[in-house]
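Bug #77: duplicate submission created two jobs. Keeping one. Sequence:
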Amino acid sequence: MQLSIVGSGYVGTTIAACFAEVGHDVVNVDIDDETVATLNAGDAPIHEPGLDDLVAEYAGDRLRATTDYAAVRDTDVTFLALPTPSEDDGHIDLSIMKAGARSLGAALAEKDGHHLVVTKSTVVPTTTEEVIAPILAEESGKTLGDDLDVGMNPEFLREGSAVEDFLSPDKVVLGSETERAAELLRGVFDPLVAQADDPPVVETGVAEAEMIKYANNGFLAAKISLANDIANICKEYDIDSVEVLSAIGLDHRIGSSFLGAGVGWGGSCFPKDVAAIIAAARDVGYEPAMLEAAVEVNDRQPVRLLGRLREHVDPEDARVAVLGLAFKPGTDDIRNSRAIPLIEALLDAGADVVGYDPVATENFRERYPEIEYADSAGEALDGADAALVVTDWPAFADLDTEFDAMATPVVVDGRRIVTRRDGIVYESLV
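Kept job's structure:
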């Protein structure tokens, strides 16, 4: 099929390359000239394992990019993969989505025949039908349900494994309100489903598909926070939380995934999505106590980590190495990284901070140019009074002699990844 993707961020670039991989012809539409040029040159504009290879293979063939919305007229289906950032009160900011819908609708006004627009961005229930669809209809002059349809296809991509998650999904959710839209969506995903060994396909309404994404992320965020709550209790009793959580994960009703206790969740999805569904629930008069508690526990974890540090080192005038700046391993994304509140608190306390991350240093430097950055974990640890492990990059598990270069070898591990050994003062968060 002929597909167009509006937006070339983490989601838009990944799904474009993966759609090309399963056989579709794809055009990315983005307003940023540099991003478009990067894609057309065969390079991925973001760090994501496996994405570089796909973009390099299909750029100029089944994958191209442009700043011209007119390109959508030659396609059958357009996916809107635009940012929906959080506002201060937790609601999502739809300004970018609305602008994209207006530009898309104006381009479709010159197209003869039917077109399907699918929301890929995470939006609260009813947004596609009550906000996006009217804009598209007004700008295009097309009639909803006749020559214009809308749909919803939530993404379940984890940064660091997004390509694998797309090509080998746990489920595919297709939201539509007309049989024509449903048929087109099936056509888009049939090659993927066949290649991925028939994952479950959930065909549902548009609002239900929107809610499934929030329910999915809300549940996972709450599961991590509950694991952290349990691990915090274990710590107070001097109980090994890893043994406890590993044991409960053997129960098929619980499962072992997302039980890794530590300094908390971050990234672009969990914080934004949980805040958005809490705000949306309050809008209709419901107080989501479980989700609110999940956020409260998560916000407490960096504070607890600093508390562990203070048991051994006064941060004022201390040189503190922060290992891990990305919100999770495998990505250069620093959005809502747990390193952010930690470094801000350290700076407020008068610490001399040096940060290191295998791939996210430059992104972090743009936000915090005032701190020092190291080119390796060993360089960050050299002369440090303490080290905080924030992101569980596998390489941090192999650190050993590097700790010997510390002025005072105090290691506070927020991810339980460093091997405890003689010669260092080791303190885990959980």
